[in-house]
Design brief:
- There is one protein chain.
- With 184 residues, this protein is α+β, with helices and mostly antiparallel strands.
- It has two domains: 5-90, no CATH class; 103-182, Macroglobulin (MG2) domain (Immunoglobulin-like, Sandwich).
- Helices cover 16% and strands 35% of the residues.
- The chain contains one helix and eleven strands, in the order ββββαβββββββ.
- It has one helix at residues 61-90; strands spanning 5-9, 21-24, 30-33, 55-59, 103-104, 115-121, 129-134, 140-146, 150-155, 162-170, 173-182.
- Strands 8-7-10-11 form a four-stranded antiparallel β-sheet, with no helix packed on it.
- The chain starts with a strand and ends with a strand.
């Protein structure tokens, strides 16, 4: 990294007298200097003799620009990578890559008191398809055998209040699970 702070002799034209600026020091004292720059401790211009040279430290902004641009590019690359990571976690994922058109719809109405409708889809030739309803402890409270795509009416009047999971299970593999709420 190049030295970005350099001494500049005769920084002010001879006919312009610099005005002092108070810049706070880390120890809490104010130091009078012509420019607020890194490690600048210079007496006020009125204290200089006409024959004395004033040395001022200045930042070379031209050499600083490529460094800042590179830092911004690196930061943007990190942002893009994080966006990709977040999108991977927020996209819905199927638990079975070969699920095809098998699907399980959300029950209606939800919450439900007595009877709810659940839409589902099966591939042709799907064997041993079931709709399995479990409580929060994972205990099976109802299981319905499914033979073709369509909609099933489920009587939940015997269920207690609470949240239940219902799953589309084909050949002992759970393809999708949804939640329904039963209220009395």
């Amino acid at each position: 990294m190049p030295d970005l702070v350099k001494e500049v002799e005769n920084a002010f034209p001879p006919n312009v007298e610099p005005k002092p600026v108070l810049s706070p020091e880390p120890n809490g004292k104010d130091v009078t200097s012509p420019l607020p720059a890194k490690e600048t401790v210079t007496p006020a211009p009125q204290q200089l003799e006409k024959s004395e040279k004033m040395t001022v430290k200045a930042v070379n902004y031209i050499e600083l620009i490529p460094i800042l641009i590179k830092a911004l590019q690196d930061q943007q690359q990190q942002i893009n990578e994080l966006k990709q990571t977040v999108s991977k976690f927020t996209q819905p994922q199927s638990t079975n890559a070969s699920a095809g058109s098998e699907m399980l719809g959300q029950n209606t109405p939800n919450p439900v008191r007595d009877v709810t409708k659940i839409q589902f889809g099966l591939l042709q030739g799907s064997n041993n398809a079931q709709l399995v309803i479990t409580d929060n402890l994972g205990r099976v409270v109802k299981s319905l055998r499914l033979t073709a795509s369509g909609m099933v009416n489920v009587d939940v009047s015997s269920f207690g209040n609470g949240v239940y999971n219902y799953s589309l299970v084909i050949d002992n593999k759970t393809l999708q699970t949804k939640k329904m709420t039963v209220v009395k």
